[in-house]
Amino acid sequence: MASSSQEKVGFENIEAADSDHVGGATKGEAAVTADDFGFTPAEQRKIIHRVDRRLVLTVGAMYCISLMDRTNLGAANIAGMGVDLMLIENRYSIISLVFFVTYVIFQPPSTIIVRKIGPRIHLAVITILWGSVMIGMGFAKTWEQMTGLRVLLGFLEAGFFPSCVYLLSTWYTRFEVGKRNSVFYLVGCVASAFAGILAYGLMQMAGLAGLNGWRWIFIIEGIMTVLLGIAGYWLLVDFPDSKRKNWSFLGAKERDWVCARVNADRGDVKPQPFSLAKYLRAATDIKVWGYAMIFFNTTTVTYALAYFLPLILTENMGFSVGASQCLVAPPYAFAGIVMFGTGWAGDKYRLRGPIVAFNCLLCLMGLPLMGFASSAAVRYFGVFLVTAGANANVPAAMSYQANNIRGQWKRAFCSATFVSFGGIGGIAGSLVFRAQDKPGYKPGLYACIATTLLSLIIVGALSLEFRRLNKKADRGEMELECDADDTYEPGFRHTY
Fold this sequence. Notes:
Elements: H1 4-9, E1 21-22, E2 25-26, H2 41-71, H3 73-84, H4 91-105, H5 110-117, H6 119-137, H7 143-157, H8 160-171, H9 177-203, H10 213-235, H11 252-266, H12 276-281, H13 286-315, H14 321-327, H15 329-349, H16 353-372, H17 376-402, H18 408-432, H19 442-474
Antiparallel strand pairs: 1-2
Helix pairs in contact: 2-8, 2-9, 2-10, 3-10, 3-13, 4-7, 4-18, 5-6, 6-7, 6-8, 6-10, 8-18, 9-10, 9-14, 9-15, 9-17, 13-14, 13-17, 13-18, 13-19, 15-17, 16-17, 16-19
Organism: Corynascus novoguineensis
Domain Major facilitator superfamily (MFS) profile: 55-467
GO cellular component, one term: membrane
């Protein structure tokens, strides 16, 4: 049934809940109605659709190019980079993992910086700068130069993903964010699907201007990044509560309505004055580290696939270089379908933990097939399951943590630590498939299975804890999730 109270607050595509609580307020109280701002339900839906088009699609497109830029090493390697830069022994793994050192170290300050100077300047500038670094990678003469450029790339990209995760969480209610996170990451997934095909096309430019084909992969994709960064300055939006100029995207009354509905959902739309002690106090909540560990486990698998799938298809399954570049696309396209489907189901049925667990099960079915089946066709089918489960868990894990925290600065800290652990997962993912283990890469497969099992255990433990805390709150024994100012939102309940 579609409740009238939900129509009034404009919760797009959200079905009536069976629980006694909707968002941060009990049914029938503290909800912001359309009458308070004069918007009809149809006008409210149009406002949310405008936010979707302007925010989700813009950051999705920018993340798409970000993901391509950090994961195109595999395509470049089999396109001749390994020979030209003499990537013998562990040099390729070193080039892969040094990116994540600076990527992890410089993420925590990013969510503070983006709050202070605004997403438009912060995200556009770092995108233009890392695009310039990408172009420079196309002219690297030695593996040491490539390593240095990857360190710089990690420094510049460090601020992007946590800032996007944080920005998205400020515009939507808790049971709208699942689909939006899925679409945001889905665009990047589509990029991964076609990045191999694009790289294969750019390889055909070999000899142009005396440059090998792998160099053109970096140069052309770097130019695309710079252009998208310039466009991003004009297209990106600020935080809904910001007083900075927001171009003609939404009027003041429309922004106030967005803030009011988010505030009715969880009561933390406006940040408290920044305090380093209060910002870091979020670190004392063990649940924050549980979310981060789930993301570490997830990205260990996603980055392992991103960096080594072309090599696995070539060396383990016997496909040619051209075929391997193109065969990367179908599993990622399938992952996009699973990603959006699970995001939609999570929002509709107000589930988070079971969605993460389902995606883990897909990985646990796919990894043994991928590594141990006798037929190349069956192993390739396993790639579909692993790619879908691991990549769909990125937005699923984002939504899991976003639904279960309150307070802008705790949200900022959570986004930074969450994505930092994802970067550490990138380091692990770039090391699990070692050259000495080819063509079977068995130790890497065991590592991926272990991290996926650990995610299942953590989700189970968190869900049991959420259930316990919610029951205590229902009995009036406690309130849940205070913000940085030590205030609680009556009616807030954890989502499990």
